[in-house]
From TrEMBL:
Transmembrane helix listed as a keyword: yes
Glycosyltransferase 2-like domain: residues covered: 322-531
Transmembrane segments: 66-86, 107-132, 168-186, 488-517, 645-660
Main localisation: Golgi
Protein name listed in UniProt: Glycosyltransferase 2-like domain-containing protein
Length: 690
C-alpha cells in the first residue's frame, strides 16, 4: 500500500471506494529512504545510508539470541544454586555440619545469628512502612512525626524505633565505622607503598647478585673441597599423595654427593605410609644418594619438634647450610646452585628464600584465587621487604638457612604453630639479614578444597598473634634500631596480621549490613566500591592473566575475613584452637616435566641395578604389604559452614532493605557478597573433600 501522503494535509483525503486489490511482490529488494520534504524524494540516494531490511532483521535476531542465551545461563546457575541449597541445606545429602572446637567460634556464630534475627525483624517493620507509604520513609533527611500524625500502635512502635535509632544507635555505628574506615585507608596506603616499591625494583632491575663463580660450580667434581656441606630436610606427616615426587626431586639436586645429605623426617602415624616412604628412601639409597630416614615415635611440637629433633643429630655439626622443603615441594636440580652461592663472602646473611610456583593453580576457582593472593605476597611483599629491609617472614619451605644463624637465634621452638615466622623474627633481632630470590621458583600445591584452605588460613592467622604476644618484650628490649622495631611491631604484626582481618570483617560483613537498617550511619560509595576495587586491581597486577577474576577475588577475600578474624582473635587471646595443627591436605598434582621423568624412570631397566640382596628383599616386602593393604573406595562429602551461611543470609537481608531505599551500589555489593558467602557456606567452591 502506498503512503497516505501526510505531507500534503490540505488535499490528502481517504476517498477510496470499491473492491480492494492485493498485490504480491516477489524478490523484494527495497530500501528505506528518509524524506524530509516534497523535494527530498527526487534527490539522489546516499548509498552509505541505505540499510538492507534483511540484514537489520538478522542483527536483531542475533542480539535477541545472545540475550536469551545470557538469561538462560543465569537461570541455569540460579537453578543449580537452588538445587544445591535444597540438597545440602534441607535434605543434608552428602554433607556434614562443621564442628566448632573453640568457644570463641561458637560465640561468633551466636553473635552473627543474633544480628540476622534482629535484621529480619527490622526488615519486616521497614516493609510495612514502605507499603503504608509513610512519607518520612523515602526522605533523605529523617523526619520523625509529631503525636498528631501517629496512626495506630504499630505506627507508634515504628516512630519510637526511629527516635531511638537516631539518638543512640546511629552515633555508635557512625563512630565505629569511621574508626574502621581509617584503618582501611591506612592499610590501603601501606599496600600502595609496597606496590610502588615493587615498580621501583622492576624499573631499576634490582636483583640480588652473585659476584663471579664463588664455588667453581662449573666443575663440581674438581672443586668438591671448596663446595660447602649442605643438609636437605623434608619434614612430612602422612603425606601419601606427594612423598614420592618430593623425594625424587630432592634426590636429583645438582650438588656433589659427598657434600650433600638428605634427611626424610617422617612423623607419619600410619604404618602403611611409613613403609611406602621407607621403600622410596631405600630405592634412592641403592642409586648412591646420601639419604637417611628418620621417624619419631612421639610426635611432639609438630613440624618445629620434627626439625628440632633432626638438628640434634651428631653429624649435623659437619654441615654449614640446611635447605628445607615441605612434602609437596619439587625443587629444580639447579636450586642449590642458585641459592647457596649468595652466602659466599656475606657473613651477615642468614636466609635465602625462593619463590613458590603452583602446579595446580588452574585446577578450579579456589586455586586461581589463591594464586592471585600468593603472587602478590611473593612478588610484592616479600621482594620489597627483602630489597629495602633485608627482612621478611620465612615461608617455612623452599629456603636455605645458615645453620649458625639458626643456632644463635635459639633454634626451632615449639611454642607456636608458625615456627617459620618465629625463627625469622628471632634471627632478625640477632642482626641476621635475609635475601629473597624472585627468579628462583619451586613448584608446590595449593589446597583444592575449601576445608583444607580454611584450616591452613586459620593456622596462618592465629599463629602470628600468638607469636606477637610472646615476642613483644624481646622486640622492645632488643638492640636493633628504633625504625626496625617500629616496622616489626606496627607494620609486620599489627597492620598486616591484626588490623587487616579486623577491619575487613567488621566493616564489610557487620557494619555495612547494619547501616542499611540505620541509614543515618550509611557508608559512602567510595568505601564500598571504588577503593576496594582499586586495591583489588593492585593485588592482581602480579598475576595479569587473572584479571577476569578480579570481582570474584574481591568477594572471596571478604568471605575469608570471617575465618581470618576468628583465627586472629583465637591467637591473640590464646584460645584452644590457636594451638591446633592440621596438615594441609594435598592432591598429589605433579608438573608435566615430573610426569615425563617418572615415566622414564618406570621404563628404565637400570632402576634397581646394583641393589643389594637386603635392599631387594625390603622392596619385595613393601610390594607385598601394598598388595595386602585393603583399598577403601574414596567417599566424597562436603561440609556446611554455619558462620558463612549466617552471614550470607544477613547480607542478603540487608540487600533487600537497600532495595527498598533504591541504593544502587550498596544493593549490588550486598547481593553479590551474600551470594559469595552462600556458595562458600554450602561448600560449592573448590574440590570436594575426599
Amino acid at each position: 500500500m502506498a503512503p497516505k501522503g501526510d505531507f500534503f494535509p490540505w488535499w490528502a483525503k481517504d476517498t477510496r471506494k470499491g473492491t480492494p486489490v492485493i498485490v504480491t511482490m516477489e524478490n523484494v529488494n527495497y530500501s528505506v529512504v528518509e524524506i524530509d520534504g516534497p523535494d527530498s524524494a527526487f534527490r539522489p540516494i546516499d548509498k552509505d545510508r541505505v540499510k538492507n531490511a534483511k540484514q537489520f532483521t538478522w542483527v536483531l535476531i542475533l542480539k535477541a539470541n545472545r540475550a536469551v542465551g545470557c538469561l538462560a545461563w543465569i537461570g541455569h546457575i540460579l537453578w543449580v544454586l537452588l538445587g544445591a541449597i535444597k540438597k545440602r541445606l534441607f535434605f543434608r545429602r552428602g554433607v556434614a555440619m562443621e564442628s566448632e572446637k573453640s568457644g570463641k567460634g561458637k560465640l561468633l556464630f551466636r553473635v552473627i545469628l543474633g544480628l540476622l534475627i534482629t535484621s529480619l525483624a527490622f526488615l519486616a517493620f521497614e516493609v510495612i512502612a514502605h507499603y503504608m507509604r509513610w512519607p518520612y520513609f523515602q526522605e533523605h533527611n529523617l523526619h520523625i512525626p509529631q503525636t498528631l500524625e501517629i496512626r495506630g500502635w504499630l505506627h507508634l512502635i515504628y516512630v519510637s524505633w526511629l527516635g531511638f535509632r537516631a539518638d543512640y544507635i546511629a552515633p555508635l555505628i557512625l563512630a565505629f565505622s569511621k574508626f574502621c574506615v581509617v584503618l582501611f585507608l591506612i592499610q590501603s596506603l601501606d599496600r600502595m607503598i609496597l606496590c610502588l616499591g615493587c615498580f621501583w625494583i622492576r624499573y631499576k632491575n634490582i636483583k640480588p647478585t652473585i659476584n663471579g663463580d664463588p664455588f667453581n660450580l662449573g666443575d663440581l667434581e674438581g672443586s668438591k673441597y671448596t663446595v660447602p656441606m649442605v643438609l636437605v630436610q623434608i619434614p612430612m606427616c602422612n603425606e601419601r599423595e606427594v612423598y614420592e615426587q618430593s623425594i625424587s626431586a630432592v634426590c636429583q639436586l645438582d650438588w656433589p654427593k659427598e657434600r650433600l645429605l638428605i634427611q626424610i623426617l617422617d612423623d607419619s602415624d600410619d604404618e602403611s605410609i611409613q613403609w611406602l616412604i621407607k621403600g622410596e628412601v631405600s630405592k634412592w639409597m641403592q642409586k648412591g644418594v646420601n639419604i637417611v630416614y628418620r621417624h619419631r615415635l612421639i610426635r611432639t611440637g609438630y613440624k618445629a619438634g620434627n626439625l628440632k629433633s633432626a638438628m640434634s643429630c651428631d653429624y649435623v655439626k659437619d654441615y654449614e647450610f640446611v635447605a628445607i622443603f615441605d612434602a609437596d615441594f619439587q625443587p629444580n636440580p639447579d636450586y642449590l646452585k642458585l641459592t647457596v652461592p649468595h652466602f659466599k663472602d656475606n657473613p651477615e646473611l642468614g636466609l635465602v628464600q625462593a619463590r613458590w610456583g603452583f602446579v595446580n593453580k588452574d585446577e578450579n576457582l579456589l586455586t586461581r584465587l589463591q594464586d592471585i593472593n600468593l603472587c602478590f605476597h611473593f612478588e610484592v611483599e616479600q621482594q620489597v621487604n627483602g630489597v629495602f629491609l633485608n627482612f621478611f617472614g620465612f615461608n617455612g619451605t623452599a629456603g636455605v638457612w645458615r645453620i649458625k644463624a639458626l643456632e644463635e637465634s635459639g633454634g626451632w621452638l615449639e611454642r607456636t604453630t608458625v615456627e617459620d615466622m618465629d625463627i625469622a623474627v628471632r634471627a632478625h633481632l640477632h642482626g641476621w639479614k635475609f635475601i629473597y630470590l624472585n627468579d628462583v621458583k619451586v613448584l608446590c600445591e595449593v589446597p583444592e578444597s575449601y576445608e583444607a584452605y580454611k584450616k591452613q588460613q586459620h593456622r596462618w592467622h592465629s599463629g602470628p598473634m600468638q607469636l606477637f604476644r610472646l615476642c613483644l618484650p624481646s622486640i622492645i628490649t632488643s638492640k636493633i634500631s628504633i625504625w626496625k622495631k617500629a616496622n616489626l611491631i606496627l607494620l609486620f604484626f599489627l597492620l598486616r596480621k591484626l588490623i587487616l582481618p579486623f577491619y575487613s570483617f567488621t566493616l564489610f560483613c557487620i557494619i555495612l549490613p547494619l547501616t542499611m537498617f540505620v541509614p543515618e550511619a550509611e557508608l559512602p560509595a567510595w568505601v564500598i566500591c571504588y577503593v576496594p576495587v582499586f586495591m583489588s586491581f593492585l593485588s592482581i597486577l602480579p598475576a595479569p592473566k587473572s584479571f577476569p577474576f578480579i570481582a570474584p577475588y574481591l568477594l572471596f577475600e571478604n568471605t575469608m575475613s570471617v575465618t581470618k578474624f576468628n583465627a586472629m582473635v583465637s591467637g591473640l587471646f590464646q584460645l584452644g584452637s590457636s594451638y591446633e595443627w592440621v596438615v594441609t591436605k594435598k592432591a598429589g598434582r605433579a608438573s608435566e616435566p615430573d610426569l615425563l621423568a617418572a615415566a622414564e624412570r618406570e621404563l628404565s631397566p637400570q632402576l634397581h641395578r646394583g641393589a643389594s640382596d637386603s635392599g631387594l628383599s625390603e622392596l619385595n616386602k613393601l610390594k607385598e604389604h601394598q598388595e595386602a593393604a585393603p583399598k577403601s573406595p574414596a567417599k566424597k562429602t562436603n561440609k556446611i559452614y554455619k558462620k558463612e551461611l549466617a552471614l550470607a543470609f544477613l547480607l542478603l537481608t540487608a540487600a533487600l532493605r537497600s532495595l527498598l531505599s533504591a541504593h544502587g551500589v550498596h544493593f549490588y555489593f550486598l547481593l553479590f557478597q551474600g551470594v559469595s558467602f552462600l556458595l562458600v557456606g554450602l561448600d560449592l567452591i573448590g574440590e570436594q573433600v575426599s
